[in-house]
Amino acid sequence: MSISNEAVEALILKGIEDASVTVTGDGYKYETTVISNAFANLSKVKRHQLVYSSVNEAITSGELHALTITALTPEEVA
């Protein structure tokens, strides 16, 4: 059982509403880039925890196996 890229994106957007999210994956391993003001003044670990909290249910259910996260503020992208 796996989850679609779009479903992973939707979960992240539900948890981090102002985010810009891209997800790529093959049904087992996924990569996401999340850009959000919510990451301002947060360490890399705290940023990843925020993203993981959005997808935790999919991880615990086994739908989502591996997620590589890049979490940036809009200023860091510019």
Can you describe what's shown?
Helix 1 crosses helix 2. Strand 1 and strand 2 form a beta hairpin. A three-stranded mixed beta sheet has the order 1-2-3. The protein has three helices and three strands. The mean pLDDT is 95. The chain is of the alpha+beta class and 78 residues long.
Which sequence of strands runs across the widest sheet?
1-2-3
Query: Helix and strand string, N-terminal first?
Result: HEEHEH
Question: What is the strand content?
Answer: 25-35%
Count of separate DSSP helical elements: 3
Which residue ranges are poorly predicted, with pLDDT under 50 across at least 5 consecutive positions? none
Subunit organisation of the chains = single chain
- Taking the alpha carbons of the first and last residues, their distance comes to 37 Å
Question: What Rg is obtained from the alpha carbons, in whole angstroms?
Answer: 12 Å
Class derived from helix and strand content: alpha+beta
Overall mean pLDDT score?
95
Largest sheet: 3 strands, mixed
Write the layout of secondary structure elements.
Layout: H1 5-15, E1 20-25, E2 29-35, H2 44-61, E3 66-72, H3 74-77
Helix pairs in contact: 1-2
Defining key terms:
single chain; 78 residues; alpha+beta; 3-stranded mixed β-sheet; 3 helices; 3 strands; 42% helix
What's the short story on this structure?
With 78 residues, the protein is α+β, with helices and mostly antiparallel strands.
